[in-house]
Amino acid sequence: MTNKKTVNECNGLSVGDIVKDFSAIDQNGNKIQLSELLKKGKVVVVFYRGQWCPMCMPHLKKLQDGLLEIIEKGASVIIVTPEKQENIQKTILKTSITVPIIYDENYQIMEAFDVAFIPSKFLKFLYNTLLRANLKNAQSDNSQTLPVPATFIIDTDSKVKWRHFDRDYKNKASVKEIVNQL
Fold first, then answer.
1. What is the rounded distance in angstroms from the CA atom of residue 149 to the CA atom of residue 169?
2. Distance between terminal CA atoms of the chain?
3. Is residue 155 part of a domain?
4. Within a domain: residue 2?
5. Distance (Å, rounded) from C-alpha 178 to C-alpha 182?
6. Mean predicted lDDT score pLDDT of the chain
7. Model confidence pLDDT, tens digit, residues 33-87
8. Secondary structure (3-state) at 72
9. Is 152 helix (H, G, I), strand (E, B) or coil?
10. I want to staple 51 with a disulfide (CB 3.0 to 4.6 A). Which of 86, 91, 126, 165 is the partner?
C-alpha cells in the first residue's frame, strides 16, 4: 500500500476522468477485465468494505434485487472489496449476490479510484472488536485499508459518466439512482 490517506483526503475520481484498465479475479476464479466489459457496454463499479459491514450487506442485497433493471440498461456490474476470497464467499452467503465480486489485492483498484483510506485507530478498534472485521487477516496486509463505499458508472470510452461518492458510509447509491444515470 503506497497511499496512507485518511477518509477526508479521499476525493474519488470525478465525472469525466479516465479510468485506467484493471483486472482481478472474481469469486468464481474468473479474470474480470474492465476493458473487456466496456466492449459490451457501461460498467457500474461498486466498492464495499467487507462482509462484516452492517451497512454494506443490505446495500448489496438491494443491488442484487435491482440487478435486472441495470442489466436491461445494457450495463454490467463489478463489486470491489479489499477482502480475500473466503470473506467474499461470506458476502455471497449473506446477500445472494450474483455479479462478479473482485478481491482488490494490494488496493490497486481502490487507489486508482481514489477511494482507499486508512481508518483511525478508534475505527479500527471498533470494526475489529464490535463488528469482528478482523481486518489484518481479512486483507492482503496489516494496513487495514478500506474503501469509501462509492459507486461509479464507467462509459464505454473509459470515462467516469456518473459517481456517488460520500465519505459517510451510511450513504450509498440506490438502484434507482444508478438506473436513472444509465
1. 6
2. 33
3. yes
4. no
5. 6
6. 91
7. 999 999 999 999 999 999 998 888 999 999 999 999 999 999 999 999 999 888 9
8. helix
9. strand
10. 91
Using an 8 Å Cβ cutoff, are 82 and 145 in contact? yes
Q: Which residue, chain included where needed, has cell 482488490?
A: 104
Give residue 140's domain range.
Answer: 7-181
CA–CA dist 73, 66 (Å, integer): 12
pLDDT digits (tens, 9 = 90+) for 51-65: 998 888 999 999 999
Count of beta carbons in the 10 Å neighbourhood of residue 12: 20
H or E element at residue 130: none
138: domain CATH number? Answer: 3.40.30.10
Say which amino acid occupies 18: I
Which amino acid belongs to residue 15?
V
pLDDT value of position 43: 97
Residue type for position 116: A
> Does residue 28 fall inside a structural domain?
yes
> Of 154, 161, 128, 165, nearest to 76 (Cα)?
154
Q: Of 154, 150, 175, 152, nearest to 39 (Cα)?
A: 154
AA identity, residue 98: T
CA distance 17 to 127: 32
Q: Is residue 57 part of a domain?
A: yes
More confidently predicted of 137 and 173: 173
The pTM of this model reads 0.92
- Name residue 181's amino acid: Q
